[in-house]
Write a structure and sequence with these properties.
The protein is mainly α. The chain has five helices and no strands.
């Protein structure tokens, strides 16, 4: 990055909206669905979800500290990924009609 900036590429070129890193980190929340698929993980839903949230926050903070994104980039990256996850879950886990 520094080499490209030294060659004249604007520093702002390295920022994007929304943050793909945060979107990918948000996909970790899909691990919260594992207890639905594996009986050995029953009762660990909150722990798995909590670990996912911690991971997302760490990725968000790291992107801001590195100067790769603004807070708004991170929040929208999270919102986009969460929306996709909710849509997929709604489709995949539709209640069965009697």
């Amino acid at each position: 990055k520094e080499t490209l900036i030294a060659e004249g590429v604007a520093a702002e070129e390295f920022k994007s909206f929304p943050s793909g890193h945060v979107s990918n980190a948000t996909a970790v929340l899909l691990l919260s669905l594992l207890p639905l698929l594996n009986d050995k993980l029953k009762g660990k839903e909150k722990t798995i979800f909590g670990c996912g949230v911690v991971w997302i926050v760490l990725v968000m903070i790291s992107r801001i500290i590195m100067g790769a994104h603004y807070l708004t980039d991170d929040v929208v990256g999270f919102a986009v990924a969460l929306t996709v996850i909710l849509i997929v879950c709604k489709i995949a886990f539709k209640p069965k009609k009697a």
